[in-house]
Write a structure and sequence with these properties.
Helix content is 45%, strand content 15%. By secondary structure, the protein is α/β, with parallel strands linked by helices. It has an eight-stranded mixed β-sheet, with helices on both faces. Strand 2, helix 2 and strand 3 form a beta-alpha-beta unit. The protein is globular, with a radius of gyration of 21 Å.
């Protein structure tokens, strides 16, 4: 195993089962000291499993939606091991319904767990990682956020928001060697049970996703990557922008947008912007060129 986490300390949320458990076990197997976070008894069971195999782990049972509890978890980590090198934001829930039937309380709950839970965890470790000039953070996004999925407007909105969080944190953390990425897993877990045929679920073992996670939190990790992983297959997703067409601000600009929408949409020279300012530079550049 060439990827090693000797001397590193990792916090994995939602690690009492499924993907989080696999992530925690694999990190510990490769030398990391692991904080196993979840609600209920699952966290302690996974921590005990790590220790029985000769690793080091502590269990912290708390909700990632409770910022005070998250800060206390990080304090416990620092008191125990003196640093936090890796944060895996994996905690999540589902409350699936079509948007017309969805209660707003269920929409908010899913956003609170997935998005705000990750925000709270990132905030609690951010200055620690910056001060020690080392940090690796992975937000667990989803194809439901990247591409949409019927009945998951709440989940999809939260999961795409995690991509936006990653994009900005990766820029802000770059000078301090804090690298931030997203993992979009497809795995058979308690959240997906009953949603797919068993023959498909058998291929989608959570352990088949974890190798991608290990790379994203390794010393040589990239930053600002969206890694798709499932059934042993790995791919990347990108947020891209076409170069578009300059139409101007004439009275018929709306009609021209409609008439030239195919050209506006052409992906022949699309780019992956390195920051949000690239949109403005492209727009102003085309406007200046058109007026010269």
């Amino acid at each position: 195993m060439s990827i090693s986490f000797d001397g590193r300390v990792a916090i994995v949320t939602g690690a009492g089962g499924g993907l989080g458990r696999e992530h925690a076990l694999a990190l510990a197997q490769r030398g990391a000291k692991v904080v196993v976070n979840d609600l209920g008894e699952g966290a302690q069971k996974v921590a005990d499993e790590i220790k029985a195999a000769g690793g080091q782990a502590i269990a912290v049972s708390c909700s990632v939606t409770d910022f005070d509890a998250v800060q206390a978890m990080v304090k416990t980590t620092m008191d125990t091991w003196g640093r936090v090198d890796i944060l895996v934001n994996n905690a999540g829930i589902l409350r699936d319904k079509s948007f017309s039937k969805m209660e707003m309380a269920d929409f908010k709950l899913v956003v609170d767990v997935h998005l705000m839970g990750a925000v709270y965890c990132c905030k609690a470790v951010w200055d620690i990682m910056r001060a020690q000039k080392y940090g690796r953070i992975v937000n667990t996004t989803s194809s439901s956020g990247l591409f949409g999925n019927f009945g998951q407007s709440n989940y999809g909105a939260a999961k795409m928001a995690l991509v936006g969080l990653m994009q900005t944190l990766s820029l802000e953390g770059a000078k301090d060697n804090v690298r931030v990425n997203c993992l979009a897993p497809t795995a058979a877990t308690a959240m997906t049970e009953g949603l797919m045929p068993q023959v498909v679920l058998d291929k989608l073992a959570p352990s088949a996703v974890t190798p991608g996670l290990l790379y994203l939190v390794s010393e040589d990790a990239p930053s600002r990557a969206i890694l798709n992983a499932g059934a042993g297959t790995f791919a990347r997703s990108y947020v891209t922008m076409t170069l578009g067409t300059h139409i101007g601000t004439g009275a018929d600009a709306d009609d021209q947008v409609a008439a030239q929408f195919e050209a506006i949409s052409s992906r022949d020279e699309e780019i992956v912007p390195q920051s949000g300012s690239e949109q403005g530079r492209n727009e102003v550049g085309k406007a200046m060129a058109a007026s010269s």
